């Protein structure tokens, strides 16, 4: 990326960098954003498992996507034989399918594997993004209205047919795909934007609207969706709410629990819960919509949301640093909060291994030539370019002068900014590129956040499971990255193949490690199937009992996303 300005690790050279940095800020106008030729975000298509990345014309953009083996994913029921199908649930027959076809009308709204062989059409809906979980659903339903969702659920509840709600199927805990033959209720046809009030900043839309489409719409009105994540080209806003997704700018905009103003949902018995409030303040009793946020489809289907959206920032800066130790990363974070204050919109951490794997998987050159044990990506967003540049320069001068940061680059235009972001966002895809990945998404107090990665690597080595070169070893590498600003570590154990020995060495060891430090075993991805058994490491018996009571109240027949969550 030749036009990036390089920061030099000495005060004398920093002056040069500062001169250039005056020009390094760029206005990230909504027009420029919309006009971007291609999205750098990963798109996960149902039909094809291959994710694509693109950042046209930039030399740090991913250069190639080597072929990944399209090996068959094992059925979840075979990988986890201890999970048994609930015999209370009815098996689908032609009469059931006829009911749904009559209700939904359009051919494309039903994928019918009951009356015909539709295995290949169903595959993308049955398999998850990590290629770790695979269900055996024979029916996918794609309603296009809340009324249709209501009638489907009522029928399923009356007939004890289990349901798996599904958005963009980008979830990372196995919650979005069935375990057995649950009907997949996919929200992709519920994709209308209902309204946007550009005075109050309130956006109302169907649950199946793709996150990126929602954000593009808001950009046209000078606003931003208060959530951004690497799967934005595929995930749906309903799925984001159902998982209480955190993402890259939670540090700035806060969580779904704070931003969601209203929800329209359908309960298992078909009741439509019309709580699509646009009010910022509404202290009239229990805030029941919060139960759907992070509910992972276990108590009802979210059909629409209303959400508070901030103004889109005029000036956005992105910088990428190399640092020599985790202690320096913490110092840099402290300084960023202190000196950048209200304009700091992201502070992301990547270790050397995660960047090396990204480079290996994509062929993209990394922004810094020399290797550093740690990298950080910092973003500022504000309303005044000069003011932001001044603050950023003062910050850079300090962290360089004090040798907190060893080297770094600042983007000077949007393409460069996107490419720097791609070094962070592209890790997810890279982590599973060579076979699969065991993902742990953890909240850990900052001083100890990275120690888990070292401890985990030692553990994999001691068990003789890890080798960078020896193909007979299942583990390829152990990576750490994540949302430093939210004390959220992503520990990824990248594997050549899923292997029970690796799983046994990791679980419950990782959860015990986190629990001892009063962390959380799921910071933002949820519990799904992957972490269901381990909830006790983060929640007390009393809390779990209360959750079970809520589940029982909303879904007495247990048809909503069974075998998951709780
Ligand atoms: P799905 O995967 O389809 O479903 C997720 C869960 O929600 C399932 O349990 C499903 O049953 C339920 N569900 C979906 N839609 C509804 C609905 N309308 N009503 C009720 N239940 C529903 N997560 C983060 O928090 N932060 C990140 O930075 C982040 N980055 C990611 C990057 C990549 C490349 C990928 C693949 C995933 C990432 N994720 C991240 C995971 C994240 O949970 C999802 O991307 C997203 O929030 C899920 O949305 P979805 O529409 O794909 O939902
Ligand atoms: C991220 O922050 O990149 C996501 O949560 C996905 C992942 O953990 O890989
Ligand atoms: Zn994340």
TrEMBL record:
Its cofactor is FAD. It comes from the Eukaryota. Pfam families: FAD-oxidase_C, FAD_binding_4. It catalyses: (R)-malate + A = oxaloacetate + AH2; (R)-lactate + 2 Fe(III)-[cytochrome c] = 2 Fe(II)-[cytochrome c] + pyruvate + 2 H(+). Coiled coil: none annotated. It is found in: Mitochondrion. One of its GO terms (biological process) is malate metabolic process. Keywords: FAD, Flavoprotein, Metal-binding, Mitochondrion, Oxidoreductase, Transit peptide, Zinc. InterPro entries: FAD-bd_oxidored_4_C, FAD-bd_PCMH, FAD-bd_PCMH-like_sf, FAD-bd_PCMH_sub1, FAD-bd_PCMH_sub2, FAD-linked_Oxase-like_C, FAD-oxidored/transferase_4, Oxid_FAD_bind_N. Residues 48-60 have a biased composition (Low complexity). The keyword Zinc applies. Its main location: mitochondrion. One of its GO terms (cellular component) is mitochondrion. Residues 133-312 form the FAD-binding PCMH-type domain. Its EC number is 1.1.99.39. Catalyzes the oxidation of D-2-hydroxyglutarate (D-2-HG) to alpha-ketoglutarate. Also catalyzes the oxidation of other D-2-hydroxyacids, such as D-malate (D-MAL) and D-lactate (D-LAC). Exhibits high activities towards D-2-HG and D-MAL but a very weak activity towards D-LAC. This is D-2-hydroxyglutarate dehydrogenase, mitochondrial.
């Amino acid at each position: 990326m030749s036009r990036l300005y390089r920061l030099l690790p000495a005060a004398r050279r920093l002056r040069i960098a500062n001169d250039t940095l005056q020009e390094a800020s760029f206005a990230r106008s909504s027009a420029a954003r919309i006009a971007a030729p291609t999205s750098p975000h990963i798109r996960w298509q149902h039909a094809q498992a291959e994710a694509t990345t693109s950042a046209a014309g930039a030399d740090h953009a991913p250069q190639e996507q080597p072929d990944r083996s399209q090996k068959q994913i094992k059925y979840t029921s075979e990988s986890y034989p201890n999970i048994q199908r609930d015999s209370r649930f009815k098996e689908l027959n032609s009469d059931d399918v006829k009911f749904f076809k009559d209700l939904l009308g359009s051919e494309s709204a039903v994928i019918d594997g009951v009356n015909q062989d539709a295995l290949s059409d169903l595959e993308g809906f049955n398999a998850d993004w990590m290629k770790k979980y695979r269900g055996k659903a024979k029916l996918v339903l794609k309603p296009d209205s809340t009324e249709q969702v209501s009638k489907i659920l009522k029928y399923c509840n009356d007939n004890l047919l289990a349901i798996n709600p599904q958005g963009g199927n980008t979830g990372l805990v196995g919650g979005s795909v069935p375990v057995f033959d649950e009907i997949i209720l996919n929200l992709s046809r519920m994709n209308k934007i209902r309204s946007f009030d550009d005075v109050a900043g309130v956006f109302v839309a169907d649950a199946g609207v793709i996150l990126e489409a929602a954000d593009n719409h808001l950009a046209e009105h000078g606003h931003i969706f208060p959530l951004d994540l690497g799967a934005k080209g595929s995930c749906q806003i309903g799925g984001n709410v159902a998982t209480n997704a955190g993402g890259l700018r939670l540090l700035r905009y806060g969580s779904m629990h704070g931003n969601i103003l209203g929800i329209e949902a359908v309960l298992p018995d078909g009741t439509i819960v019309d709580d699509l409030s646009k009010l910022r303040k509404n202290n009239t009793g229990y805030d029941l919509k919060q139960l759907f946020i992070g509910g992972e489809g276990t108590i009802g289907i979210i059909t629409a949301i209303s959400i508070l959206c901030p103004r889109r920032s005029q000036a956005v800066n992105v910088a990428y640093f190399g640092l020599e130790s985790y202690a320096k990363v913490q110092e840099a974070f402290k300084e960023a909060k202190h000196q950048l204050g209200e304009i700091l919109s992201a502070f992301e951490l990547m270790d050397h291994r995660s960047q090396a794997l990204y480079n290996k998987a994509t062929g993209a050159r990394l922004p810094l030539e020399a290797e550093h044990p740690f990298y950080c990506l910092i973003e500022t967003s504000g309303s005044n370019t000069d003011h932001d540049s001044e603050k950023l320069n003062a910050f850079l001068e300090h962290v360089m002068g004090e040798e907190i940061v060893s080297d770094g680059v600042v983007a000077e235009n949007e393409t460069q900014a996107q490419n720097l972001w791609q070094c962070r966002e592209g890790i997810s895809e890279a982590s599973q590129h060579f076979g699969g990945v065991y993902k742990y998404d953890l909240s850990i107090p900052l001083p100890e956040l990275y120690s888990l990665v070292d401890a985990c690597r030692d553990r994999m080595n001691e068990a003789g499971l890890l080798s960078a070169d020896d193909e007979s070893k299942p583990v390829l590498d152990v990576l750490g990255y994540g949302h430093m600003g939210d004390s959220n570590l992503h520990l990824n154990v990248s594997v050549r193949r899923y292997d029970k020995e690796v799983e046994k060495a990791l679980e419950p060891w990782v959860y015990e490690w986190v629990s001892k430090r009063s962390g959380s075993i799921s910071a933002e991805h949820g519990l799904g199937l992957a972490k269901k058994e381990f909830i006790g490491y983060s929640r007390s018996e009393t809390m779990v009992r209360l959750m079970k009571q809520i589940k029982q109240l909303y879904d007495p027949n247990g048809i909503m996303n069974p075998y998951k969550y709780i």
